[in-house]
Amino acid sequence: MITLYGSSKSRAARSLVALEELGLDYWHSPLNPRAHADHRATLDAINPNSHVPVLDDDGLIVWESMAINLYLAEKAGGPLWPTHPADRAATYQWSFWSQTEVDRADWNRARRGGDEALIASDRQGLIAALAILDRALEGRNWLLGEAFTIVDVNVATTLSQPNENGLIGWQRLDAAAEGLSALAAWLARCIARPSYAAVRDMS
């Protein structure tokens, strides 16, 4: 039995979208440790970092959203998991890139600190990072070419969770308005998939 812990309005959304795309049977436990002390106790017992998401696959505990998604896609196989080593390398590359260059802890700290100059600088940094992705998407429908795969799930859900309606990051950037047309078109294709709608409707 697969259980995925974490609210669909958190980073757990990334793994919920993956589960929906893979068509796997699972149970969703929408932990919200910030709001509920008992949820915090449950989370502390399964993840020493006290973060969601956490996956429990019949007793195997996996945390970190990218690790969860890559594990699930490889285990399930099928069209979302690339079979060629070069495509798997690109999958790892872009998945990790989305964490180190987009979902950055220092940018989130700037948000909480309220330093407007730093926030403006971070916004420009995010746009510069997104421009790299935009260039990689020129002339292709998906990150690996013509096939939608787990890397599209990983990167798209890092940029914009289902509840964020295609806007990017906590500053809610609009890719089209920033002139990132290839990225905007790709992200629109991603968020139009049924998996996004299914997770958007979750608690």
Brief sketch in words of this structure:
With about 200 residues, this protein is α+β, with helices and mostly antiparallel strands.
The percent of residues in helical segments reads 40-55%
State the separation between the terminal residues, measured CA to CA.
Answer: 20 Å
Class from helix and strand fractions: alpha+beta
**Arithmetic mean of pLDDT:** 95
**Regions with little confidence, pLDDT below 50 for 5+ residues:** none
CATH fold-level topology of the largest domain: Glutathione S-transferase Yfyf (Class Pi), Chain A, domain 2
Order of helices and strands: EHEHEEHHHHHHH
| Rg over CA atoms | 17 Å
* CATH class membership of the largest domain: Mainly Alpha
The counted number of beta strands is 4
Q: Provide the spatial order of strands within the biggest beta sheet.
A: 2-1-3-4
**Which CATH architecture of the largest domain?**
Up-down Bundle
Shape: globular
**DSSP helix count?**
9
Number of spatially distinct domains = 2
Walk me through this protein's architecture.
This protein is an alpha+beta fold and 203 residues long. The chain has 2 domains: 76 residues, 3-Layer(aba) Sandwich (Glutaredoxin), CATH 3.40.30.10; 115 residues, Glutathione S-transferase Yfyf (Class Pi), Chain A, domain 2. It is 54% helix and 7% strand. Strands 2-1-3-4 form a 4-stranded mixed sheet, with helices on one face. Helix 1 links the parallel strand 1 and strand 2. The two termini are 20 Å apart.
